[in-house]
Amino acid sequence: MPAPRYPWNLLPQLATAIETGQRDATRQHLDALLAVIAVSSGNDLTLRKLRCAQLVSGCLRGAHHGGVASDLLLREHMRLLKTLAELRTWSAVCRRLHRYVDRLRQQIAPPHRSRMERIVAQVRADLLARSLAEHAQAHGVSVGHLSRLFTALTGHTFREELRRARMAKACRLLQETDLKISAIAARLGVCDPSQFSSDFRRATGLTPSQYRVRHSR
Predict the structure, then answer these.
(1) Are residues 100 and 19 in the same domain?
(2) Cα separation of 60 and 69, whole Å?
(3) Is it the case that residue 4 has pLDDT exceeding 70?
(4) Given this model, what pLDDT does residue 66 score?
(5) Phi, psi dihedrals of residue 20, rounded to the nearest 5°
(6) Is 88 helix (H, G, I), strand (E, B) or coil?
(7) Does residue 87 sit in the same domain as residue 31?
(8) Higher pLDDT, 115 or 171
(9) CATH number for the domain including 168?
(10) Does residue 82 fall inside a structural domain?
């Protein structure tokens, strides 16, 4: 049976879960990564340990973004590498990594976490005015990092939230104004009116015109 493809998305998700202090998500992503390492490395414990050492780099980035001091990260990292070299079973390696990651997550600075929550709140309040890239540039973070952070803190992707916001505003405009469908689409940042109509029907079960007739005031 061929080994599963390496889930490259899991490591960034683990880093974001650490950064935002999410215990359950951190453990879930770590368990998934360890399972893949175990399958793809066979019974070679040394190779498994090397793969775990690579995994830790993503954990360090998440903790650093979460405000953990660099000197503490370095001490924890060196201690972990030394311990991993001495362990003789895979189950012991997994237990040690769980303790390590839990400790990183617990060190996340509350003021930094509050800042991240404020950033996401600002993005949600301004969904229709800026693209994700513009939000990321305004807050000095990468698009990928902001996307993962947004999903981690809201439970929804930026695209899902944007779609909800667009549909909610579209409903208000259809009920309260006489704007043409093309004008409403433009206000929502959708260049193609037919695409807007298709998205609206998928979300509500009605075309924009049908919705206006049923709900106009």
Answers:
(1) yes
(2) 11
(3) no
(4) 87
(5) -95, 5
(6) coil
(7) yes
(8) 171
(9) 1.10.10.60
(10) yes
